[in-house]
Amino acid sequence: MERGSEEYKKVADDLHAGRTPRVKTDGLTIAHLCNSFLTAKLRKKEAGELTSRLFWEYQEVTGLSVGTFGGTRLVEDLADDFADLRARTAEKWGPVRLGNAITRTKSVFKYGYETGLMERSTRFGPEFKKPDKSVLRRHRAGRPSQMFEPGELRAMIDGKAVVGRGDEVFVRADPNLRAMILLGVNCGFGNMDCAGLTLSALDPERAWIDFLRPKTGIARRCPLWPETVAALREALSGRPEPANEQDTQRVLLTVRGSAFVIHTDTGFRKDVIGIQFGKLLKALGIHRSGVGFYALRHTFETIGGSAKDQVAVDLIMGHTDPSMAAVYREPVDDAHLLAVADHVRNWLRTDRASA
DNA sequence: ATGCACCGTGCGCCAACGTC
DNA sequence: GACGTTGGCGCACGGTGCAT
Q1: Of residues A235 and A125, which shows the higher confidence score?
Q2: Whole-number distance in Å between A112 CA and C5 C1'
């Protein structure tokens, strides 16, 4: 196992010069492994194959490894240290983030083996695993329900008189936000979907939205309720001039003519929809911590699913169906999609005894 | 002219979801 | 399961427009 000092120097020189060592060695340090991994990911990021946000997370987990193991520690020497790393991570974060960190850390060491920086794959030990499904389930059960009630949705869409400081104020979403809320509960649109809706995907005459998701190429089709069409028309009539050339196709723009959701190259995401939606919920007195715009999508999925036509729900939501059945299935008839949309609308518009 | 509330923007960090 | 993407939320800063 003795390493020739000559070989070691060659590796050190390579590292110093920012090169990947030409000599395979079992003397790889944690710091070198992490640096090499991050360099590779940085290249992917610069090629546009990786979001800067994910890169930022990789930086974070490699930082945890270096901090826990020590940068000069040899990868080869690691034994039950991963249990320590897990324990330290669990102190910092909840089960979901802990699970993410474990997955990403494993991918760092897997990278080391696959690139030949390491001779052997790493033994992480029996404890270095993601939290059990049951732990995650219990964690999720402790979170607030990601659903809105019909009365809450009607308040957002139709407006509601709220008693403020002595006087009554009528609170209602503005046309843009109203259109987005309706897209959320009518079509299962999320923040990104609303911000990215293009003029070509929207057919107000036919009252349909029809497009291919840019990422997956999955077709997404959705029949629009009359109130959704009305809100979209209103938003279009007040649509500001797009501030940037790349936003000319967007249906919905902020008052300053920019997109509602923007990603910067530093991994930061600006989400005006989430901000405005949160303000509306507070003004209506129905704000619950942890329940935001995305809960509209949950609501559509849940209520739409109760129409017992999951295939139609999936098509409206833009989900892919991984099963083989999808390969053989004929295109979904519009009538099925209309049935789901009507089902959700009836639920929303029908007063129940408790409401 | 000055003060200030409001709102958009920039960002960090936690959490969860989606695809292969 | 591995790998990748998106949502939620809180905080700080700075421009804008309105009241004083």
Answers
A1: A235
A2: 24
Is residue A293's beta carbon less than 7 angstroms from any atom in nucleic acid strand C?
Answer: yes
The nucleotide minimizing the C1' distance to residue A257's CA is B8
A211 phi and psi, to 5 degrees?
Answer: -160, 170
In the beta sheet, which residues pair with residue A74?
A29
Q: Which helix (H) or strand (E) holds A208?
A: strand A208-212
Q: Indicate if CB(A88) is under 7 A from strand B.
A: no
> Contact A299/A189 with Cβ under 8 angstroms?
no
Answer left, alpha or beta for residue A188, where phi above 0 means left and psi between -120 and 50 means alpha. Answer: left
- Domains of chain A in start order, with CATH, are 2-141 (no CATH), 150-348 (1.10.443.10)
Determine the pLDDT at residue A49.
Answer: 65
Q: What are phi and psi of A175, to 5 degrees?
A: -55, -45
Q: How far does the CA of A236 sit from the C1' of B8, in Å?
A: 21
Angstrom distance, A321 CA to C10 C1': 37
Chain B nucleotides near the protein (CB, 7 A): 8-20
Q: SS3 of A301, please?
A: helix
Q: How many helices (H) and strands (E) does chain A have?
A: 15, 7
Task: Name the DSSP class of A246.
Answer: G
Mean pLDDT of chain A: 75
Q: Give yes or no for CB of A97 within 7 Å of strand B.
A: yes
- Global pTM reads 0.78
What does the pLDDT look like over A193-216, one tens digit per residue?
788 888 888 888 989 988 766 555
CA distance A302 to A344: 9
Tell me, what DSSP letter sits at residue A129? S
Which nucleotide lies nearest residue A264, CA to C1'?
A: B10
